[in-house]
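Re-run with default settings, no changes from the original entry. Doing this only to confirm the output is reproducible before filing.
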Amino acid sequence: LMFVCFIFIVVSYVQIFRVVLRIPSEQGRHKAFSMCLPHLAVVSLFVSTAFLAYLKPPSTSSPNLDLVLAVLYTVLPPVVNPLIYSMRNKDIK
């Protein structure tokens, strides 16, 4: 189920980028990408930590590694999310 969701997200972003690249003005493309890329960064951070947490081989599993991966999966994306979205704010830049 997680793989199907991941494929759906990838296909959706490919469609979004195809449409954005067809925008005739450079300023319009820049504005569209500046709205899409922070969201893509947060989604990719969340998906990559989820893959690390759930798709690691069980032979290399240790309780400490499981704890670190669980913290990365549950804490890192929500903490980094406001930082990534605030990069669009001119006052913070």
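Residues 26-54 form the longest helix (29 residues). The mean pLDDT is 78.
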